[in-house]
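2024-03-11 09:14:02 DEBUG pipeline.ingest accepted 1 chain
2024-03-11 09:14:02 DEBUG pipeline.ingest length=140
2024-03-11 09:14:03 DEBUG pipeline.predict start
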Amino acid sequence: MWLAENFIYDVWLLIRIAGIRFNEDVLRRYVIKYPISTYFDKKGLCHDAANLAGYALTKAGYKVQIVTAIRKAPFKIAARSHTVCTFEKDKKWWVCGDTRGRKNSVIRDIAGPFENLEGVATYAVDDNLSEYHFARKKGF
């Protein structure tokens, strides 16, 4: 609920980094913020919201996985990615801290259940899944 009420999607940051080629090391070291920074800034990108949600859920005792999904690129347009936090409860996966669907905010609802992490990734890119991977957690 804290994310839904306080977090703002940082569109200006997205514009500043658009077109830059990132590898996992660059993302982890320079782009993805520590959860405490996101908490105090109250803004960031999808991976920042996912990382903060993951940190909180880990502290609450849940098994957490951060999933980055790549959307199929139609007509040779650049593929887009989206990162969500997923946690396991009763042998099912649930999504929390999703930044899609609300203008400058986070979706309040917890999505799920999903049978597996591929189902989570497919949800994250609206059924246009090309590939997915597990993002490293930063700060926890």
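2024-03-11 09:14:41 DEBUG pipeline.report The CA atoms of residues 35 and 51 lie 6 Å apart.
2024-03-11 09:14:41 DEBUG pipeline.predict end
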